[in-house]
Structures are given as structure tokens and as C-alpha cells.
């Protein structure tokens, strides 16, 4: 995903690629591990889960599609996850982390995740694509996210 991300078209005012230039079918090996967040505004309440791949649903033990991010994450992880996502949007660059699944009853699951910002034609960040995979074998998880 990371390699693909850096090849995508950009507007001159943004380091982030255009959402309209992203075709998920060009990275079919990560679709099941992908979460797409719609960014309606810069607040936590303005972020919504638009797509959640089947493997992420299984990993999280829940389908969060259609839910606001503010009502999706456990309270303990909410602030840290929000800071991570906001930092990606502000920097307009992807980030990579090892973390716990941010849901109650699933905190025991460790994941490797990459977060990728996408902008519209005006340069505003409108989507965040998160690719998550179990971190049991970090080299396999990294390959899904960075290739």
C-alpha cells in the first residue's frame, strides 16, 4: 500500500494524493485489511468509518461501517488514536505504528497499522485509509502495508 500511495497523483498544494486518483482495486491484496475513514471536518465527531475490510472486522470482532469514529473506539484509546489520525492529516504523510485494537474486549490483539491521508482537489484531507494486520508476524504485516 505504501509503495502504491507514493505513486498516486497529487495536487500541487498537497503532499497527500488525490482521493479521486485512488483505486482500491489496484491494491487487491490489502482490501480485506483496509478501513476507510471519511473526514467531514477536523473534529473527532467529523470522522466516519465508510468501509471496513472483512479481515479487519474479524480482527476487531465488530463491523464499524457507518459509525462515527467517536462512538467506535474505547474510551481508553480514543484520545491516543485521535492524536495519531490528526497528526497524519496535518502532516499529510502516512504513519506506521504497532498498537492494540482500540475496542473493549479486543485490547489483547496487537496490530501493525499504516494510516494514509488523501485529499480532494482543493487540498483538504477528506479520507484516511488505515491498513491493519495482526502483528504476530511483523514482517508479514509490514509487507501488506508497505508494499
Could you describe the 3D structure shown?
The chain is globular. It has 147 residues and is an alpha+beta fold. Strands 2-1-5-4-3 form a five-stranded antiparallel beta sheet, with helices on both faces. It has four helices and five strands; from the N terminus they run αββααβββα. It has helices at residues 2-7, 54-60, 75-91, 138-146, and strands spanning 34-39, 47-52, 95-100, 110-119, 125-134.
List strands and helices in order, with pairings:
Blueprint: H1 2-7, E1 34-39, E2 47-52, H2 54-60, H3 75-91, E3 95-100, E4 110-119, E5 125-134, H4 138-146
Antiparallel strand pairs: 1-2, 1-5, 3-4, 4-5
Provide key terms for this protein.
5 strands, 26% strand, 4 helices, alpha+beta, 147 residues
Rg, please?
14 Å
Number of helices: 4
Shape: globular
Instruction: State the secondary-structure class.
Output: alpha+beta
Strand tally:
5
Brief summary of the model shown:
The chain has 4 helices and 5 strands; from the N terminus they run αββααβββα. It is of the alpha+beta class and 147 residues long. The protein has a 5-stranded antiparallel beta sheet, sandwiched between helices.
